[in-house]
Each structure stands twice: as structure tokens, then as C-alpha cells.
Amino acid sequence: MAQNKEITLKNIANNWRFITITVMLFASIAFFVSTMITPEYKSQAEILILQKNLDIDPYRAAKASEYAGEVLEGVSGSSDFMNGVLEKTGTTSQKFGENPEKQMENWNKAVNVSSVVNTGIVKITVLDPSKRENKKLMEAVMAELQTNGVKYHGNENITLKKIGGPVYFENPAYPVIWLNVLVAGVVGLFASIGMILLFGQNLGSWFTNRSKIKFQNGNLNQAFYHYPEAR
To answer: Do 95 and 62 share a domain, yes or no?
Structure first.
């Protein structure tokens, strides 16, 4: 058992060139693909749902705020809410696609309104390829919720108060290039080791034991990789 383990580790060590090249190949592909993806910039904000009626039972008040948050989370993905927000930005739904189905799909990717359980807090997250458009969209979402919130949650006894943000992130949220490269490198590492264990051959010799290319009498002798002889 110990001898087999020693042979395996030695085989892996002997193929360090193959492992290095595989890791670099995976990492390079990940970097190239990541740079081809359109970056998405993120902003976040938080809104607290408050009761106007201070005489209401605290438990009922908390439940009413929680329910209103859940309603806002649901209606944020509606076409009415989308059109209300876009009207404030001076754009139309065509920004998110040519047909209603595509528009709603892209809208729900760009704008996320979620309620925090048992807190009465609503979190807003906005994604957009442009920093400028991201800021416009976030401000419009906040304005629509605070000015027309009653139209969506239907409770005139609550008010929405901004308690956090908006925070505009300087670096793109997607893709995270360094993380993609790191993950790809790790995958390449395990893939190369797996190939070494699977084939049980000195794969590193592919990069060392090869004939040289020579020109003789105007003819090109091709170079071929030689596999190590099985013993």
C-alpha cells in the first residue's frame, strides 16, 4: 500500500510540466472567456417599513410590515412596477427587450426587491452594464417605492423609510475575473492529476522526448511526440 502511494506521488512529481501547462491552459481560457462577458455593476439599498399608527399592537404592526415587504417583493417583478420605474428614468421597456416576455425576464435579472424575514426591511439590488444607468435605475426604484408604495402594498397606515444606501460598487459584480481564473486553475490541477492517475504514463515526456525539426536537402522532417515504452 505504502509502495503504491510512493509510486503515485513520484509519477505525479515526474509530470510537473504537464500539470503546469494544464493549469495555465485552463486559467488562460477562463481569463479569455471572462473578458468577453459584459460586466454588470451592482448597487444596493435598504428600506424600512414603518407603521404610521403608533397605537397598534406591536405584534400586529410587525406582521403588517412583514406582509407589506412580501407584497413589495412580489410586485417588483410586475410590468406595472417596471413601467413606473422606467417612466422616472425617461426610458421605455424596450431597454430590456423587444417583447414582453424578454422584457420581464431581463427586468427581474436587473432589479431584485427582497424582504428580510421578521424585520420589516426590504433590500433592493440593481444590476446594469453601465454605472450611470445603474444609478438612474436605483434612484428610480427607490422613488417609485417611496412615492407610490401604497399603490402596490395597499396599506395606507405604513410608510417606507430609506435606512441604507444606495451603495454603488466601483468594481463589476459579474464576472469576477480573478475568481474565475482561480477556480479554473484548481480544476486544471485536478484534471491533470486525474489524467496522470488514469493513464499511468509519464505524460511529461510529451514535452521533452520529441525529435527535432531539421531541414535536409530542402525537405522538412516532421517532429512527432514519442510515448514512453511500456515496461
So the answer is: yes
* Residues 68 and 140 occupy one common structural domain: yes
Q: Is residue 133 located within the same domain as residue 73? A: yes
What's the rounded mean pLDDT across residues 53-80?
Answer: 82
Which structural domain, as residue segments, surrounds residue 70? 41-168
For residue 177 the three cell numbers come to: 475575473
Residue 225 β-bridge partners: 210
What is the tens place of the pLDDT at every residue in 164-211? 889 999 888 888 889 999 999 999 999 988 888 877 655 555 554 543
Asked whether the beta carbons of 30 and 183 are under 8 A apart, the reply is yes
**Distance between CA atoms of residues 3 and 46, nearest Å:** 61
Domain membership of residue 114 (yes or no) is: yes
Any domain includes 224 = no
* Cβ–Cβ < 8 Å for 85, 147: no
In this prediction, residue 55 has a pLDDT band, given cuts at 50, 70 and 90, of low
